[in-house]
Amino acid sequence: MQTYQLIATAASGIEALVGKELRNLGYEVKVENSRVRFQGTMKDVIRTNLWLRTADRVKIIVGEFDARSFEELFDRTENIAWENLLPVDANFPVEGKSHNSQLHNVPSVQAITKKAIVQRLSKVYHRRTRLAETGATYPLEVAINKDHVLLTLDTTGEGLFKRGYRKNKGGAPLKENMAAALVMLAHWFPDNPFVDPVCGSGTIPIEAALYGHNIAPGINRSFISEQWVNLVPDGLSDEVRDEADALADYDIELDIHGYDIDQNMIDIAQENSRAAGLTHDITFKQLAVKDWHTTKVNGVIVANPPYGERLSDKESVHELYRQMGDLYRPLTTWSKYILTADMEFEKYYGAQATKRRKLYNGALRTDLYQYWGKKDRSKFKTLK
C-alpha cells in the first residue's frame, strides 16, 4: 500500500495537542503552525480520521514547490502524477488561498491549477473532450504562502468536529474538537469526577465521555475518502473501524456531570448524549452555578462560560465569575479550567490562574485559565 505525506490541520493554539495525539497513535510528526505533518497509507488516513479528537482535517500532500508566475504554477502542477489519485471520472473541485505571495489573485490561482490538472489527466486518459467529473469527489486545495505552493487532497469531507451526535446546538456552541482539546488540556483521568457547570448543549461532557471510554470520535460518521474505490481497498474501512471499536472500554464507570441554569439547554444536552450513545454515562441537571456543591475530591471542572461580549451582559457575567471563584477556590483538590475571552476574568474570579493558555474559539481569541488542584492521594472519588 502506498505511503503518502500527510497533514492534520488544526486551530491555532492546539497544534501541539494534535501532534501529541498522532504520537500516541504511533506516528512520527512535525508540528507547524496550524498543522502537523506525518506519513501513512490509506489505512492510516482512515485511522487518523477516526481517532483524532482535536484536528480539523486530514489531507494528503500531492505536491509542494515554489512558484512566482502562473506559468511556473501551471507547469509544476501539470508535472504531478494526478492519475495516481484521480480516476478518469473524478469530480475534483479546487479551492485556493494565498498569503504574502506574488500570485495573490486566488480565483486565477484556482483556475490555473484546475486547468493544469485537467490537461494532465486528459493526456493520460486520452480525452479530447471535457472530463466528465461525474464520479466520487476529491476536494483539492492550492495554498500559497510566501510563494510556496502546497497542493493537498482533503480526505475528511465535513470537518472532523462534526462527530454526528449534535442534533441540536442552542446558542454559541463550542466546536466538538475544541471541547475535546479542553478535556485533554485538563489532564483528567476517567476514574475522577468531571464537571461542566455551564454545559449548554453538552458538548464538553460528551467529549469527556468519549475520551473516558476510549471511543474513537469519528466512529459514527463517514469520511469522503471512504468513497474512493480506486485508493481504498474493499473492506479496509470496515477493518479499521472494527479495530477502533475493539479498543473502546464501554464498561468503565464514569462520573461526569453537566449543569446549566436553562432547562431547555439540559434537554438539548440529553438529546445529544442519546445520539452519542452515552445516555447512562453523563448526568445532566438544571442547576445554577451558585447552587452546586460537592464533597468529592480530585475532580476536574471544565467550563466555557458566557464571555459578556455585549455591554448589557457584562455585569451578569462578572457576577457569574465571582460565584465561580467563591465556590471553586475552597475546592483545593479540584483542578479548574475556564475558557473565556474576558481579559478581566481573574479579577472577578478572585485569584490568579496557575497558567493561562491562548486558544482560538473560531476566530475569537480566548484564554484558558487553569487553576491546578493538589490531589489527595489517599482518596479517589468521595470523602466518607
Poorly predicted runs are none
The proportion of strand residues reads: 15-25%
Strand-pairing-aware structural class? alpha/beta
Number of strands: 14
The general outline is elongated
Pattern of helices and strands: EHEEHEHEHEEHEHHEHEEHEHEE
Provide the helix percentage. Answer: 25-40%
The Cα radius of gyration reads: 24 Å
Average pLDDT: 95
Number of helices: 10
Biggest sheet, spatial arrangement of strands: 2-3-1-4-7-6-5
State the end-to-end CA separation.
57 Å
Biggest beta-sheet profile? 7 strands, mixed
What would you say this structure looks like, in words?
With 384 residues, the protein is of the alpha/beta class. The protein is 30% helix and 21% strand. The chain contains 10 helices and 14 strands. The protein has helices at 15-24, 42-51, 70-78, 106-124, 176-185, 203-212, 236-247, 263-275, 311-328, 345-349; strands at residues 4-9, 30-32, 35-40, 57-66, 94-99, 140-145, 148-154, 194-196, 256-260, 282-286, 300-303, 335-340, 355-361, 364-371. It has a 7-stranded mixed β-sheet with strand order 2-3-1-4-7-6-5. Helix 2 runs parallel beside helix 7 (236-247), helix 3 packs parallel to helix 4 and helix 5 (176-185) packs across helix 6 (203-212). The longest helix has 19 residues, at 106-124. It is elongated. 41% of the residues are buried. The mean pLDDT is 95. This is RNA methyltransferase. Keywords: Methyltransferase, RNA-binding, Transferase. It comes from Limosilactobacillus caviae. One of its GO terms (molecular function) is methyltransferase activity. InterPro entries: DNA_methylase_N6_adenine_CS, RlmKL-like_Mtase, RlmKL-like_Mtase_CS, RlmL_1st, SAM-dependent_MTases_sf, THUMP_dom.
